[in-house]
Amino acid sequence: MKKSDKKKSDKKNKLYLSDKQPLSTVGKLMLFLSYIVLFAWALIILLPLADMVVSAFNGRQEQYIMLNDNFQFSLKHFDYLFNETLYLSWVKNTLFIAIMTAVITLIIVSFTGFAYSRYRFKGRKASLMAIMLIQTIPTFAGITAYFTMHSVISSIAPFFTRQMMLILIYAGGGIASNTFILKGYIDSISTELDDAARIDGCSSMQVYRLIIMPIAKPMLAIIALWSFIGPFMDYLLPRVLLTNPESYTLAAGLFTLINDFRTMNQPAFAAGGLLTAIPIVALFIVLQKQLVSGLSQGSVKG
Amino acid sequence: MGKYNEFLYDDIGNEYARKNLYLLELAKLQSKLKTAKAEEKLEINDAIKKLIKNKKNNPYNLELSSYKSKEKNFLTTLNAKVKVFVSNLDKSIDGKLKKMEKDLFISTEKASFYKKYVPLTHDAALAYERNCIMRDQLPEIIQKYKTTKDELTNAKAHLKQIDVQNEKKVKLEIKEFASKQKAIFNEGKLKLKEKRHSKLISDKALKNGIIELQKKRSEAINLKSYESDKKSTKELIENKKYVLNKGIRRELNVLKSNISDLRRKTPIELSKTKPYFSAITVLFPGIGQLLNKQALKAIVFAFATLFIYVIAIPYALGFGNYQGSGISGLISLAEGGKKVDKSLIFMIEGIVAIFLLMFSAALLMLSYFDVKKVEKDAMKGIRPRNWFESYSKIGQEGFPYLVSLPALIVTVFIVIVPITTAIMLSFTGMDPKHQSKFTWVGIENYKLIATGSGLAGSVFWSILGWTLVWTVCATSLAIFVGFMLAIIANNDRIKGKTFFRVVYLLPWAVPAFITIMFFSIMFSQNGSITTLLDNFFNIQLTAKTDPFYSRIVLILLQTWLGSSYVFLLSTGVLQAIPGDLYEAAQIDGATEWQKLKRITIPIVLFQTAPLLVGQYTFNFNNFSIIYLFNGGGPFNPSKYGNLAGSTDLLISYIYKLTMENQYQSIGAAITIVISLGLMLFAFIGFKNSKAFKEERL
Amino acid sequence: MNVVLKNIGKKYEGREEFTLKDINLEIADKDFCVILGPSGCGKTTLLRMIAGLNSITEGDLLFDKKRMNKVPSKDRDIAMVFQSYALYPHMTVYDNMAFSLSMRKERKKVIDERVMEAAELLQIKEYLYSKPSDISGGQRQRVALGRAMVRKPSVFLMDEPLSNLDAKLREHMRVELVRLHKALGTTSIYVTHDQTEAMTMATKIVLMNDGKIQQAGKPDEFYNRPENIFVAKFIGSPTMNIIEGIIKEGKFVADHGLIEITPSPNDALKLKPFEGKLVSVGIRPERFESGGEFGDTFSATVDVVEMLGKEKILYARLDNGSELVISTPGHFEYAVDEVHSFGFDVGAIHFFDTVTGLRIN
């Protein structure tokens, strides 16, 4: 490179190219402070989680997790988790419940969302409002009744397990808010599309199936995802409703590892928690935009 | 005696002249009577009486009855003629065609018969025009049916004689074609990739391009595959079948809707003046509709009758119950029953019975008003809807109800019945000593709560106090932290935003029960945080045994958990704020602080308000964190009794009451109390939110 | 197929007044009928009623003598092009165009032939496998047209299909639509608020306002013989000059007294019953002359001159300040603030009854 060229490029590098105005000293200080705050909070978040990860892999940890300087990489807690506990069947149960919840929610809500968005029928506003209000009542107001209802139904139809009851509760509990969200999304789809489809020869059912549902897929996916994640996150209902450790979900099952003296094993809990959290966290990171927009859609768009 | 109008009306209020001269005269006299002076009244009344007395000999009525008898004769001879006509039809034709041919024959005959009587009655006019429509439109449909049928037969015959040899050849050709298409596809793909390499097109364009190529290829192969004689003949058969079925039905629907339009425009004339069908059939939905000659509705409502008398009422009387005894079980609550009888089951079955009865009552009302409306309309001149009209109306307007049905069933089963049960339960005395059998105690439980007395009620107010403190502190702190972080991280000059966002997402993404449980471990006596604090700062944190520290730690923990959600939410909103707003403010001379105060905060708050309200209600009922962290402890029996710990929220207290100590009734009462409060709170929140106001519900 | 509307009326639930009332219209087979009107006049509602998307409150809608009032859209054998095009975003262009036929279980081969034919005609073959979101507005417009054409419907409905295109493209598509209509010969009903589209494309124009038909007929009738003041003002750009006044001794005298017009003998006959009554005169900007047959002239000050190339538009002011718009050939020289004398082409003057707004001559 020639000298003059170099000079030029030097000059180029020194040029102030940012669109923004240069910072004053106070501004620089503020920026520095901002970084400190952000990093501090990041540390606060990461340290406990890191501790969990480390504990899960630390072969030196016994039954109780304690702070100790010794670290020895080992998979023995995972080994314990898979072989000594019912972890795998918990995973299976949770997946079963989550998938069924998502499917049932989708079926029900896709219909109601469509109906509430596209049709003006009697009792429309009142019903939605009523359910929205009723749903502020905590789910477990009904728990005494759920027990009894389950015992009555299962004695008539033995295949109706407690897990199914749980699925129905999850699916039923989300109907109003999910309908509200989906309705908002479908409202944003031009009704001219419906008109065009009707002229092209579609019945109401075909408009729903061939036109609206494919277009509403992004929102349906979000609703499905939320309903799917719900059972992973919930502790209360499985704990109350499921009595047999064989039928526990992950949340209820993992809790037995830290609160029951017979099965106490905190590092195994850390390991199990880690395994449970990883796929969900991955999902959240990949889909964070959609998930957040799905959340706010309910409020902003209605 | 009933009153008659001089004119007949249709459903949009158009006037039609009466054709029944007798009724017309009567109506005229009646309207005269209204405006007449006192002395004339007598005379008019006499005239009316005379008219009614002579009803049988009234010239119009005579003509009408002669028409009726002629019509009867005509119909009997027509019947015979139709039989002959049908027997002369080709035997090989199918039922559908036969019916259409028959209809055509009948309509031709009828049209010529009724033509003469058009001026006499509206019914005859309707019959005439209706048959005219059928006479005019049916031949075309029959023709179409016949040709399509012939084509179908030919195609079917062709399918049997397909050249197998040729078929094989074509199959090979198609295979070859497919591989050629694949080559073309690959070539196209390569070209696109080259273009991408030389940066002529973007990644997205490349992806779209490949998708397009793929579609093109599969479309081409698909099209080619129809060159197979077999496949295309099969397709032809499908198509013809469709035309025969749906296509013909479509044309018939046009015909039928033409007829139904006619019915709307031709009034009906009745001598009836009181809607008595509705009154006498009120208890039996379906019969009234049958009397109104609405067969489809009658069938639908017959199911309602069936439901009422076979399911709802017997169930309410105690038949077919699992254990209870219908409504009466709700009153007795299995008192004095067998040992296995449970009050709770009696109660739930009683509630179900009540719902069934309410539903029945609604059906009865629906039917009553339906019959009454149709009758009243008919007296005005509006014809009752026929089968086709009812069917298309139900099909159109019933759709949203039909598709919402699953939601309704699940909601009733999962939400309404359990909540009603909880409400009922709160008026009973279900406690550890009265588990299988309990009785009504009135508002006893609520009294206990209000006065703060009794085993369970005594701690209610102190728990409520802590619950409120907790809700306000934990939520507000989380909102504050999340919001502050969002604003700081949203600064354009901050680098590494992705990193911060991913990290800040974690508390939300990791299932809360895992983190709470793990924090619980870390804060325990030998846990890492306790140890750390002890080692470095020499602080003995007794988070699990000291109520005060326990509460502080819980609030901080919830801040840790909840700020993540608020952060993500506000970041989303912040990014959506248009930049020119800030630029405009900057030009107007606003400082950073003013911009924050006047633009950022109001916008974010406005947009996220309903969700933030949701956060408060969420924390009010945040069972997991309390229960999983320390089980509501530390326990302090002198202050909180044996049932609750010092960090218990109402929700976890209810849990302990109902699930762990079986004080179901007082638990239910507390649930109802807090639910009412929350509902009010939520209602105000929803009502003021933008979403609800602008909602075009 | 011929389309007949008899006394069609529309009333929305919860409204006192009829939105549309007494619409009578006959559209002959192969007509290209343009329904024209300002926004909110009910033209789109009328079109949607013909399509079966809105219900008909009263009256008859007949397609070839069959009443269609309650027949669902899908059974009416119509096709419609929407203002927003309403292309199904999740389907390719090809699938969009094939959709209606595949709903009817048409044979694959027939579908392909029809789609290809339409694509050829509309020059969209290259985009057949793209999604609607990947093509430009003009192309989408063509796809929407193609989708309607593929059906081979008996009636073609279009709801302001060109309003989302830019001026150049619109001009181009106008010509193409006329060509298409010539080729297909399908009865078409076209809704627009743009008078240029109406004048250039229609074989029949229906001008609506306030839920009523103002005038129906051939395009040149609209320009040369507007039935009432509304039509006169709506059609033509720049707008027709309307001068209010009365008839005095067989002559028209403007309210401000600055203009007097002697009508032609034919018009004078028709104006006889209006002696002494309020009458408005309408004159198109290009129908002013320097002298005039009967020597009725007025002088006006040129206020603003708009140079459009082939013509100049003068905004002239009378002494009392009222304004007239006058169009003159582009090569005439006018300067601002000059005073000129203008006359009228007596054969081109429209007389209206000011009270009822109806045409007199």
From TrEMBL, chain A:
TM region(s), chain numbering: 29-50, 95-116, 128-147, 167-186, 207-229, 268-287
Assigned keywords, A-Z: Cell membrane, Membrane, Sugar transport, Transmembrane, Transmembrane helix, Transport
Membrane topology: Multi-pass membrane protein
Domain ABC transmembrane type-1: 91-287
Signal peptide segment: none
UniProt-annotated location(s): Cell membrane
Family from the record: Belongs to the binding-protein-dependent transport system permease family. MalFG subfamily.
UniProt-recorded name of the protein: Sugar ABC transporter permease
Organism in which the protein naturally occurs: Fusibacter bizertensis
TrEMBL record, chain B:
Pfam families in UniProt: BPD_transp_1
Spans traversing the lipid bilayer: 298-322, 343-369, 401-425, 469-490, 502-523, 548-568, 599-618, 666-686
Main location: membrane
Membrane topology type: Multi-pass membrane protein
InterPro entries reported for this sequence: MetI-like, MetI-like_sf
Subcellular location: Cell membrane
Keyword Cell membrane: yes
Domain of life, source organism: Bacteria
Ranges in coiled-coil conformation: 19-46
Boundaries of every ABC transmembrane type-1 domain copy: 464-685
Keywords (A to Z) from UniProt: Cell membrane, Coiled coil, Membrane, Sugar transport, Transmembrane, Transmembrane helix, Transport
Family of this protein: Belongs to the binding-protein-dependent transport system permease family. MalFG subfamily.
PANTHER family, alphabetized: MALTOSE/MALTODEXTRIN TRANSPORT SYSTEM PERMEASE PROTEIN MALF, MALTOSE_MALTODEXTRIN TRANSPORT SYSTEM PERMEASE PROTEIN MALF
Name of protein: ABC transporter permease subunit
Gene source species: Fusibacter bizertensis
Automatic annotation (TrEMBL), chain C:
GO MF term (any one): ATP binding
Domain of life of the native organism: Bacteria
InterPro entries the UniProt entry points to: AAA+_ATPase (IPR003593), ABC_transporter-like_ATP-bd (IPR003439), ABC_transporter-like_CS (IPR017871), ABC_transpr_MalK-like (IPR015855), ABC_transpr_MalK/UgpC-like (IPR047641), Mo/tungstate-bd_C_term_dom (IPR008995), NA-bd_OB-fold (IPR012340), OB_MalK-like (IPR040582)
Domain ABC transporter per the UniProt entry, residue ranges: 3-235
The keyword Transmembrane helix belongs to this UniProt entry's keyword annotation: no
Keyword tags: ATP-binding, Nucleotide-binding, Transport
Pfam families: ABC_tran (PF00005), OB_MalK (PF17912)
NCBIfam families: PRK11650.1
Name by which UniProt lists this protein: ABC transporter ATP-binding protein
Species name: Fusibacter bizertensis
